[in-house]
Amino acid sequence: MTVTYLDLTPSQRAALDGLPFEGNHLVSGPPGSGKSILAVQRAVMLALTGTPVTLLTRSNLLRQSLAGVARALGPSDRPVRVATAHGWLTEWYGARPPGRGDGWYDWNALFDRAAGTDPAPAPALVVDEGQDLPPEFYLLCRMLQARTTVFADECQRLTDTNSTLAEIARNLGRCTRHDVDGNHRNTRQIAAFAAHFHTGACLPDPPGRQGPVPRLHRFPERGAADLLILLAQAHPRKRIGVIAGSRHTQFSLLGSLQRRAPRLRPQLYTSEAKGGQYRTLDLGRPGIVIVHRASAKGLDFDTVVIPDTHHDAAADPTSAALRMSYYVLATRARHELHLGYEGESEPPLLAQVSSRELQRG
Protein backbone atom coordinates (compact mmCIF):
# COMPACT_ATOMS: atom_id res chain seq x y z
CA MET A 1 0.00 0.00 0.00
CA THR A 2 1.44 3.37 -1.05
CA VAL A 3 0.71 6.30 1.26
CA THR A 4 1.17 9.90 0.14
CA TYR A 5 1.92 12.21 3.07
CA LEU A 6 1.01 15.89 2.88
CA ASP A 7 3.19 18.32 4.83
CA LEU A 8 3.61 16.03 7.83
CA THR A 9 6.48 16.27 10.29
CA PRO A 10 8.33 13.09 11.26
CA SER A 11 6.46 12.98 14.58
CA GLN A 12 3.11 13.35 12.84
CA ARG A 13 3.98 10.55 10.42
CA ALA A 14 4.97 8.35 13.33
CA ALA A 15 1.68 9.11 15.10
CA LEU A 16 -0.30 8.24 11.97
CA ASP A 17 1.64 5.06 11.26
CA GLY A 18 1.18 4.02 14.89
CA LEU A 19 -2.62 3.87 14.61
CA PRO A 20 -3.79 0.27 14.06
CA PHE A 21 -6.40 -0.16 11.36
CA GLU A 22 -8.70 -2.03 13.73
CA GLY A 23 -10.42 -0.75 16.86
CA ASN A 24 -11.47 2.65 18.16
CA HIS A 25 -8.94 5.42 18.66
CA LEU A 26 -8.98 8.87 20.24
CA VAL A 27 -6.19 11.22 19.15
CA SER A 28 -5.83 14.46 21.12
CA GLY A 29 -3.53 17.42 20.62
CA PRO A 30 -3.35 21.22 20.87
CA PRO A 31 -4.18 23.74 18.12
CA GLY A 32 -1.69 23.56 15.29
CA SER A 33 -0.62 19.99 16.04
CA GLY A 34 -2.04 18.85 12.70
CA LYS A 35 -5.13 16.95 13.83
CA SER A 36 -7.22 17.89 10.78
CA ILE A 37 -4.65 16.83 8.21
CA LEU A 38 -4.00 13.67 10.23
CA ALA A 39 -7.74 12.97 10.16
CA VAL A 40 -7.73 13.22 6.35
CA GLN A 41 -4.64 11.03 6.10
CA ARG A 42 -6.19 8.47 8.45
CA ALA A 43 -9.33 8.31 6.30
CA VAL A 44 -7.24 7.94 3.13
CA MET A 45 -5.18 5.11 4.64
CA LEU A 46 -8.34 3.23 5.60
CA ALA A 47 -9.74 3.75 2.09
CA LEU A 48 -6.57 2.35 0.56
CA THR A 49 -7.23 -0.92 2.38
CA GLY A 50 -10.56 -1.20 0.54
CA THR A 51 -12.61 -0.07 3.52
CA PRO A 52 -15.47 2.36 2.77
CA VAL A 53 -14.77 5.27 5.09
CA THR A 54 -16.53 8.52 5.98
CA LEU A 55 -14.75 11.55 7.39
CA LEU A 56 -17.11 13.52 9.63
CA THR A 57 -17.11 17.10 10.90
CA ARG A 58 -19.66 19.16 12.78
CA SER A 59 -19.06 22.28 10.68
CA ASN A 60 -20.09 22.41 7.03
CA LEU A 61 -17.31 24.90 6.32
CA LEU A 62 -14.70 22.55 7.76
CA ARG A 63 -16.27 19.77 5.67
CA GLN A 64 -15.64 21.85 2.55
CA SER A 65 -12.06 22.52 3.60
CA LEU A 66 -11.25 18.86 4.24
CA ALA A 67 -13.11 17.55 1.18
CA GLY A 68 -10.65 19.20 -1.19
CA VAL A 69 -7.68 17.66 0.60
CA ALA A 70 -9.35 14.25 0.68
CA ARG A 71 -10.01 14.40 -3.06
CA ALA A 72 -6.38 15.27 -3.73
CA LEU A 73 -4.94 12.51 -1.54
CA GLY A 74 -7.52 9.74 -1.72
CA PRO A 75 -7.72 6.87 -4.21
CA SER A 76 -9.88 7.75 -7.21
CA ASP A 77 -11.53 4.33 -7.27
CA ARG A 78 -12.34 4.37 -3.52
CA PRO A 79 -12.82 8.03 -2.63
CA VAL A 80 -13.16 9.15 0.95
CA ARG A 81 -16.60 10.52 1.67
CA VAL A 82 -16.56 13.75 3.69
CA ALA A 83 -19.81 14.73 5.41
CA THR A 84 -21.17 16.65 8.35
CA ALA A 85 -22.32 14.58 11.29
CA HIS A 86 -25.87 15.85 10.75
CA GLY A 87 -25.79 14.81 7.10
CA TRP A 88 -24.42 11.36 7.86
CA LEU A 89 -27.00 10.75 10.61
CA THR A 90 -29.83 11.81 8.29
CA GLU A 91 -28.62 9.45 5.56
CA TRP A 92 -28.17 6.57 8.00
CA TYR A 93 -31.60 7.12 9.57
CA GLY A 94 -33.27 7.16 6.16
CA ALA A 95 -35.06 10.45 6.75
CA ARG A 96 -34.58 13.53 8.86
CA PRO A 97 -34.70 12.30 12.48
CA PRO A 98 -36.93 14.11 14.97
CA GLY A 99 -35.22 17.07 16.60
CA ARG A 100 -34.88 18.00 20.24
CA GLY A 101 -34.47 21.79 20.16
CA ASP A 102 -30.71 22.18 20.60
CA GLY A 103 -29.69 21.68 16.99
CA TRP A 104 -29.32 17.93 17.37
CA TYR A 105 -31.67 15.00 16.92
CA ASP A 106 -33.72 12.94 19.34
CA TRP A 107 -31.05 10.48 20.35
CA ASN A 108 -33.55 7.98 21.74
CA ALA A 109 -35.12 7.74 18.28
CA LEU A 110 -31.68 7.10 16.79
CA PHE A 111 -30.87 4.51 19.45
CA ASP A 112 -34.19 2.74 18.76
CA ARG A 113 -33.42 2.65 15.05
CA ALA A 114 -29.95 1.23 15.71
CA ALA A 115 -31.33 -1.45 18.04
CA GLY A 116 -34.08 -2.42 15.63
CA THR A 117 -32.09 -2.81 12.42
CA ASP A 118 -30.48 -5.96 11.12
CA PRO A 119 -26.72 -6.14 11.65
CA ALA A 120 -24.83 -4.55 8.77
CA PRO A 121 -21.14 -4.27 7.98
CA ALA A 122 -19.66 -1.95 10.58
CA PRO A 123 -18.91 1.49 9.12
CA ALA A 124 -15.48 3.05 9.34
CA LEU A 125 -15.66 6.62 10.64
CA VAL A 126 -13.03 9.29 11.16
CA VAL A 127 -14.16 12.35 13.13
CA ASP A 128 -12.38 15.70 13.13
CA GLU A 129 -12.96 18.23 15.93
CA GLY A 130 -14.70 15.41 17.75
CA GLN A 131 -15.13 17.40 20.95
CA ASP A 132 -17.90 19.38 19.23
CA LEU A 133 -20.14 16.33 18.82
CA PRO A 134 -22.36 15.33 21.77
CA PRO A 135 -21.62 12.27 23.93
CA GLU A 136 -24.71 10.51 22.55
CA PHE A 137 -23.13 10.45 19.09
CA TYR A 138 -20.38 8.18 20.36
CA LEU A 139 -22.88 5.89 22.07
CA LEU A 140 -24.56 5.48 18.69
CA CYS A 141 -21.19 4.67 17.09
CA ARG A 142 -20.74 1.98 19.73
CA MET A 143 -24.20 0.53 19.05
CA LEU A 144 -23.42 0.40 15.33
CA GLN A 145 -20.06 -1.23 16.08
CA ALA A 146 -18.47 1.47 13.96
CA ARG A 147 -14.69 1.43 13.69
CA THR A 148 -14.18 5.02 14.87
CA THR A 149 -11.11 7.26 15.01
CA VAL A 150 -11.65 10.62 16.68
CA PHE A 151 -9.35 13.65 16.58
CA ALA A 152 -10.19 16.14 19.33
CA ASP A 153 -9.04 18.81 21.78
CA GLU A 154 -11.39 19.63 24.63
CA CYS A 155 -9.69 23.02 25.12
CA GLN A 156 -11.24 24.12 21.81
CA ARG A 157 -14.96 23.71 22.44
CA LEU A 158 -17.20 26.38 20.90
CA THR A 159 -20.60 24.76 21.40
CA ASP A 160 -22.83 23.88 24.32
CA THR A 161 -23.43 20.34 23.08
CA ASN A 162 -19.94 18.92 23.27
CA SER A 163 -17.94 16.03 24.68
CA THR A 164 -14.91 15.79 26.91
CA LEU A 165 -12.15 13.41 25.92
CA ALA A 166 -13.16 11.14 28.79
CA GLU A 167 -16.76 11.01 27.55
CA ILE A 168 -15.66 10.18 24.00
CA ALA A 169 -13.43 7.31 25.15
CA ARG A 170 -16.01 5.97 27.61
CA ASN A 171 -18.92 6.03 25.17
CA LEU A 172 -16.97 4.38 22.37
CA GLY A 173 -16.21 1.47 24.70
CA ARG A 174 -12.86 -0.07 23.99
CA CYS A 175 -10.83 2.90 22.86
CA THR A 176 -7.10 3.51 22.65
CA ARG A 177 -5.84 6.99 23.53
CA HIS A 178 -3.08 8.69 21.52
CA ASP A 179 -1.45 12.12 21.71
CA VAL A 180 0.10 14.40 19.11
CA ASP A 181 2.31 17.27 20.20
CA GLY A 182 3.66 20.51 18.85
CA ASN A 183 2.25 23.65 17.27
CA HIS A 184 3.05 23.74 13.56
CA ARG A 185 0.57 26.48 12.64
CA ASN A 186 1.15 29.58 14.74
CA THR A 187 4.14 31.81 15.26
CA ARG A 188 5.68 32.10 18.71
CA GLN A 189 4.10 35.57 19.08
CA ILE A 190 0.58 34.37 18.25
CA ALA A 191 0.96 31.39 20.57
CA ALA A 192 2.10 33.70 23.39
CA PHE A 193 -0.98 35.87 22.94
CA ALA A 194 -3.30 32.85 22.79
CA ALA A 195 -1.74 31.49 25.98
CA HIS A 196 -3.50 34.24 27.94
CA PHE A 197 -6.81 32.52 27.21
CA HIS A 198 -5.83 28.87 27.57
CA THR A 199 -8.12 26.99 29.97
CA GLY A 200 -6.48 23.56 30.03
CA ALA A 201 -4.17 22.01 32.59
CA CYS A 202 -0.95 22.67 30.69
CA LEU A 203 0.12 24.73 27.71
CA PRO A 204 1.66 23.12 24.63
CA ASP A 205 5.29 23.91 23.91
CA PRO A 206 5.70 27.23 22.05
CA PRO A 207 6.45 27.04 18.32
CA GLY A 208 9.81 28.15 17.01
CA ARG A 209 8.60 30.16 14.01
CA GLN A 210 8.73 33.94 14.49
CA GLY A 211 6.35 36.63 13.26
CA PRO A 212 4.82 40.00 14.11
CA VAL A 213 3.22 40.58 17.50
CA PRO A 214 -0.61 40.50 17.35
CA ARG A 215 -2.09 44.00 17.06
CA LEU A 216 -5.18 45.62 18.56
CA HIS A 217 -6.83 48.39 16.51
CA ARG A 218 -9.33 50.98 17.65
CA PHE A 219 -11.71 51.37 14.71
CA PRO A 220 -13.98 54.27 13.94
CA GLU A 221 -17.54 53.08 13.30
CA ARG A 222 -17.47 50.56 10.46
CA GLY A 223 -13.75 51.15 10.08
CA ALA A 224 -12.62 47.52 9.93
CA ALA A 225 -12.96 47.50 6.14
CA ASP A 226 -10.02 49.94 5.88
CA LEU A 227 -7.69 47.45 7.55
CA LEU A 228 -8.96 44.56 5.44
CA ILE A 229 -8.40 46.45 2.20
CA LEU A 230 -4.85 47.36 3.24
CA LEU A 231 -4.04 43.76 4.21
CA ALA A 232 -5.50 42.30 1.01
CA GLN A 233 -3.65 44.77 -1.20
CA ALA A 234 -0.36 44.26 0.65
CA HIS A 235 -0.63 40.46 0.57
CA PRO A 236 -2.59 39.50 -2.57
CA ARG A 237 -1.55 35.85 -2.40
CA LYS A 238 -2.49 35.36 1.26
CA ARG A 239 -5.69 33.97 2.76
CA ILE A 240 -7.27 36.45 5.17
CA GLY A 241 -9.87 35.09 7.56
CA VAL A 242 -12.28 37.59 9.11
CA ILE A 243 -13.95 35.97 12.12
CA ALA A 244 -17.01 37.95 13.22
CA GLY A 245 -19.29 37.56 16.20
CA SER A 246 -22.55 38.24 14.35
CA ARG A 247 -24.14 37.94 10.95
CA HIS A 248 -24.77 41.67 11.05
CA THR A 249 -21.03 42.33 11.25
CA GLN A 250 -20.37 39.79 8.50
CA PHE A 251 -22.73 41.35 5.97
CA SER A 252 -21.84 44.92 6.95
CA LEU A 253 -18.18 44.20 6.21
CA LEU A 254 -19.05 42.39 3.00
CA GLY A 255 -21.09 45.35 1.76
CA SER A 256 -18.32 47.83 2.57
CA LEU A 257 -15.71 45.74 0.78
CA GLN A 258 -17.88 45.17 -2.28
CA ARG A 259 -18.56 48.89 -2.61
CA ARG A 260 -15.05 50.12 -1.99
CA ALA A 261 -12.83 47.34 -3.36
CA PRO A 262 -14.87 45.02 -5.62
CA ARG A 263 -11.70 43.59 -7.18
CA LEU A 264 -10.94 41.83 -3.90
CA ARG A 265 -13.91 39.49 -4.45
CA PRO A 266 -14.47 38.77 -0.75
CA GLN A 267 -16.29 35.57 0.21
CA LEU A 268 -18.75 35.12 3.07
CA TYR A 269 -20.02 31.97 4.73
CA THR A 270 -23.13 31.65 6.86
CA SER A 271 -24.65 28.42 8.08
CA GLU A 272 -28.09 30.01 7.62
CA ALA A 273 -27.72 29.85 3.83
CA LYS A 274 -29.24 26.75 2.25
CA GLY A 275 -27.11 26.99 -0.88
CA GLY A 276 -25.42 29.40 -3.25
CA GLN A 277 -22.52 31.79 -2.78
CA TYR A 278 -22.89 32.10 0.99
CA ARG A 279 -22.91 28.33 1.51
CA THR A 280 -20.27 26.96 -0.88
CA LEU A 281 -16.91 28.71 -0.92
CA ASP A 282 -13.69 28.40 -2.85
CA LEU A 283 -11.35 27.97 0.10
CA GLY A 284 -8.38 27.30 -2.14
CA ARG A 285 -8.04 30.81 -3.55
CA PRO A 286 -6.35 33.70 -1.73
CA GLY A 287 -8.27 36.70 -0.48
CA ILE A 288 -10.77 37.60 2.21
CA VAL A 289 -13.16 35.05 3.73
CA ILE A 290 -15.69 36.33 6.27
CA VAL A 291 -16.98 33.68 8.67
CA HIS A 292 -18.88 33.57 11.95
CA ARG A 293 -17.08 32.55 15.13
CA ALA A 294 -19.17 29.39 15.32
CA SER A 295 -17.78 28.23 11.96
CA ALA A 296 -14.10 28.91 12.65
CA LYS A 297 -13.19 25.57 14.24
CA GLY A 298 -10.59 23.56 12.35
CA LEU A 299 -9.83 26.36 9.87
CA ASP A 300 -6.62 28.31 9.46
CA PHE A 301 -5.62 31.42 7.54
CA ASP A 302 -2.38 33.26 6.84
CA THR A 303 -3.88 36.32 8.52
CA VAL A 304 -6.81 36.45 10.93
CA VAL A 305 -8.82 39.58 11.75
CA ILE A 306 -11.28 39.59 14.67
CA PRO A 307 -13.01 42.92 14.01
CA ASP A 308 -15.68 43.25 16.70
CA THR A 309 -14.20 42.47 20.11
CA HIS A 310 -16.19 45.41 21.57
CA HIS A 311 -19.23 43.14 21.55
CA ASP A 312 -17.53 41.16 24.33
CA ALA A 313 -16.89 44.23 26.50
CA ALA A 314 -19.81 43.47 28.84
CA ALA A 315 -18.87 39.82 29.26
CA ASP A 316 -17.11 38.54 32.36
CA PRO A 317 -13.40 38.50 31.42
CA THR A 318 -12.86 35.53 33.73
CA SER A 319 -15.51 33.45 31.92
CA ALA A 320 -14.03 30.13 30.81
CA ALA A 321 -16.31 30.08 27.76
CA LEU A 322 -15.17 33.53 26.62
CA ARG A 323 -11.52 32.74 27.18
CA MET A 324 -11.82 29.44 25.33
CA SER A 325 -13.47 31.26 22.44
CA TYR A 326 -10.55 33.70 22.11
CA TYR A 327 -8.06 30.84 22.40
CA VAL A 328 -9.70 29.12 19.46
CA LEU A 329 -10.01 32.29 17.38
CA ALA A 330 -6.42 33.42 17.93
CA THR A 331 -4.96 30.05 17.02
CA ARG A 332 -6.57 30.14 13.57
CA ALA A 333 -3.80 32.54 12.43
CA ARG A 334 -0.66 31.24 10.81
CA HIS A 335 1.37 34.46 10.59
CA GLU A 336 -0.57 37.64 11.44
CA LEU A 337 -3.33 38.32 13.96
CA HIS A 338 -5.31 41.55 14.19
CA LEU A 339 -8.08 42.38 16.65
CA GLY A 340 -10.34 45.42 16.56
CA TYR A 341 -12.86 47.29 18.67
CA GLU A 342 -15.08 50.36 18.44
CA GLY A 343 -15.58 52.83 21.27
CA GLU A 344 -13.45 54.59 23.83
CA SER A 345 -12.16 51.66 25.89
CA GLU A 346 -10.52 48.34 25.15
CA PRO A 347 -12.62 45.30 26.02
CA PRO A 348 -11.62 44.18 29.55
CA LEU A 349 -10.44 40.78 28.35
CA LEU A 350 -7.88 42.38 26.02
CA ALA A 351 -6.93 45.21 28.36
CA GLN A 352 -5.35 42.57 30.60
CA VAL A 353 -2.81 41.63 27.91
CA SER A 354 0.51 43.44 28.07
CA SER A 355 2.01 45.37 25.17
CA ARG A 356 4.67 42.64 24.81
CA GLU A 357 2.01 40.23 23.60
CA LEU A 358 -0.47 42.69 22.05
CA GLN A 359 0.56 45.89 20.31
CA ARG A 360 -1.86 48.82 20.27
CA GLY A 361 -2.61 51.16 17.40
From TrEMBL:
Coiled coil: none annotated. GO terms for biological process: recombinational repair. InterPro entries: DNA_helicase_UvrD/REP (IPR000212), P-loop_NTPase (IPR027417). Signal peptide: none annotated. GO terms for molecular function: 3'-5' DNA helicase activity; ATP binding; DNA binding. It comes from Streptomyces griseicoloratus. This is DNA helicase. The keyword ATP-binding applies. Keywords: ATP-binding, Helicase, Hydrolase, Nucleotide-binding. It comes from the Bacteria.
